[in-house]
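Human: We require from you a standard protein entry with sequence in single-letter code and fold as tokens, and nothing else.

Assistant:
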Amino acid sequence: MSRSWIASFAAVASLAIAPGALAQSERPASPRGEAATQVGGEWVTEDGRTRYQGGKWVVIDYGRPILRGREDVLGSGEEYGKKVEAGAPVWRVGANQTTRLSTEAPLVIGGQRIEPGDYSLFVDLAEGAWTLIVSTQARQEQFDRENKGAIWGAYGYDAQFDVVRAPMTVSTSEHSLDQLTIVFLDVTGAGGKIAMGWGKTLAMVGFELPAQ
């Protein structure tokens, strides 16, 4: 299973930023990345042309930190997750701005339904037991220390805005993903999986499309 995960992640990572799109001096230390899929549509053939019609986008926008030689960025024991949380109560699932989930379709994650809209994503980290958090808490697009009504990263995270807390399946790969990568896996007309990998840790959670 780990080999197929690595192959999927590597393919997405290669497309995150087009080669040559930025000069080396302009490239951020943790480039933005995007995982995207389209669901709920159907393939239609008209006049000899086939196209996907009626699909709705599900997109995750996130910062993609790089290991840069670090071998155990998540740590272990009581220190598990402390490095990436960097003083926040949960992980922003990336770097810089809070990770964003935008969905045009209703989704069911961990048995809990969310309506189409824009959400913040976090992960509550425990060794071998990650919990995905979908939240309505407002985000800052640019860091502003004076803005108390929206968060930057996961600093100021407030659980009262949580709409989903879903346990993730965590596993270990024999290979190490150098850059944090989020992808959609096994997507069908009924749903799929959100998968996250960094270093040798892989985590995923299923989502469903509710019956119309």
Remarks:
- The chain has one domain: 2-208.
- The radius of gyration is 18 Å.
